[in-house]
Every structure is written in structure tokens, then in C-alpha cells.
Amino acid sequence: MIETETSVDPIWPGDTDWEGLAARAVSAALAVSAQGSLAQARFTVSISVHFGSDDEIQALNRDYRDKDKPTNVLSFPMIDPDDFAALANTDDGEVLLGDIMLAFETCAREAEEKGIALLAHATHLVAHGMLHLLGHDHIEEADAGIMEALEVKALANLGIDNPY
After folding, report:
1. How many domains does the chain have?
2. Where does this protein hold Zn(2+) (predicted)?
3. Residue 96 near residue 109, CB atoms below 8 Å
4. Phi–psi pair at 6, nearest 5 degrees
5. Which of 1, 25, 149, 163 could form a disulfide linkage to 126, CB 3.0–4.6 angstroms apart?
6. Distance separating alpha carbons of residues 123 and 160, to the nearest angstrom
7. Do the domain assignments include residue 163?
């Protein structure tokens, strides 16, 4: 079972179901990944999604990545990808997969620059963050291609156009 815990800073528009958006994006990314079977696990897989501000994300980016600037999304995995196979032996309880953090001002600016809805961009970034929690990265070009293809597939399953 997947459990998405969501917190939303008041800076994010109040007329949107950010909790539902986060849960759908997390589930869509998981479904297209090699770890998709976690959705049917006997234990609860917990993911935290926080819709925060640029200031908050900048502080985290500075403290954890030595980059003193805001970024659109940060992911903090709590499980090493090499340990996913061992999860099959877990019978019950809860596994904390990690945290995903989005920065409002950066996300809103990027959405406007791309000419897309903030909801579509935020959905993309949550799915992107979830793939990071599942062990994907985009440092090497080949890995970036794999990750982007998974993002495109997850978003298509949610009715969102290719962001690339």
C-alpha cells in the first residue's frame, strides 16, 4: 500500500487539491518503475510530499547539496536502491521511502515560462522526485534518457503532455 503524506505552505494556491495531485503523481511514477510491485506490498510504503517556498527549498539545497539557491524540486531518499529487493521480506509495518519538496515561486515561474499550467508542472516535478526516491538520476546522459522516458509515460497515464 502506498501512503502519501502531504503538507502545503499557504503560498500555494488554495483552490487546488495538492494532496490528491501528489498521490496521483507518486502512484503514476511508481507504476512505470521497476519497483511498481511496491504498490501491492503487504506493508505501507510512505512518501512525504511538501509544497513549500523558494526560501525553504533554498535553505535545504544549501544545507544538503551546498547549492545556495532555490530549485524546483528536491528529493531525500531514505532507502538505498540496492535495498529494494530486501523489502520483499517485509511482512507488515511501514517503510519510509523518502521526502519530496517543491518550491512554489520556482515552479510557478517555470510553468509560466513553459506556457503550461502550474498543476501540470507540479505533477511532473512530484513524479520526477518520486523517480529519484526509487533510485533514478539524470547525471549521465543515458540515465537521464531513461528517467525522462519514465516521466513521460507516467504523465501520459495522467493525461499530461510530454514536458520535454
Report:
1. 1
2. 128, 132, 138
3. no
4. -125, 140
5. 25
6. 9
7. no
pTM for the predicted model, two decimal places: 0.95
Distance, CA of 55 to CA of 89 (rounded, Å): 40
Is 138 annotated as contributing to ligand binding?
Answer: yes
| CATH label of the domain that carries residue 72 | 3.40.390.30
Q: Has residue 141 been placed in a domain?
A: yes
Asked if residue 50 belongs to a known ligand binding site, the reply is no
Q: Are 137 and 146 in contact (CB under 8 A)?
A: no
User: Is there a domain that residue 34 lies in?
Assistant: yes
| Residues 8-64: tens digit of each pLDDT | 999 999 999 999 999 999 999 999 999 998 898 888 999 999 999 999 999 999 999
- What's the full length of the chain, in residues? 164
Is 128 labelled as part of a ligand binding site?
Answer: yes
Q: Domain span at residue 64?
A: 2-157
**CA separation for the pair 136, 35 (Å, rounded):** 11
| Amino acid making up residue 51 | F
**Segment 130-163, tens digit of pLDDT:** 999 999 999 889 989 999 999 999 999 999 999 9
